[in-house]
Q: What sequence folds into this?
């Protein structure tokens, strides 16, 4: 689960262990109040030269390609793979377990599901 919490039948929650890592390659910029979730297993990787604006969420186990720009309030669900040289404008949301190719431009407030 993205939050690192696991629901029980009693509606209580228990923390699940995340043993993975986060890798920020060279020249990556992460602005204020952005979050990069640690992978449950494996790694979450932000490629060389990528820029993450304010309030960006990168879900667990995701990969962001080199020189990619994620503008304010972009959200990537877990295990999303974004290619190199991409631009995601403000408030773009991407469902988990999808792959977006290199040099893709996604306009503001778009949703990517497949």
A:
């Amino acid at each position: 689960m993205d939050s690192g919490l696991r629901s029980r039948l009693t509606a209580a929650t228990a923390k699940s262990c995340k043993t993975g890592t986060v890798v920020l390659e060279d020249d990556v910029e992460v602005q204020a109040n952005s979050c990069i979730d640690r992978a449950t297993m494996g790694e979450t990787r932000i490629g060389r030269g990528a820029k993450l604006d304010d309030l960006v969420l990168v879900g667990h186990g995701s990969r962001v390609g080199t020189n990619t720009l994620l503008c304010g309030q972009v959200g990537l669900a877990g295990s999303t793979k974004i290619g190199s040289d991409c631009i995601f404008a403000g408030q773009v949301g991407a469902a988990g377990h999808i792959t977006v190719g290199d040099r893709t431009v996604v306009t503001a407030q778009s949703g990517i599901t497949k």
Observations:
- Residues 65 and 84 are 4 Å apart (CA to CA).
- DSSP finds no helices and 17 strands in the chain.
- The chain has a mean pLDDT of 91.
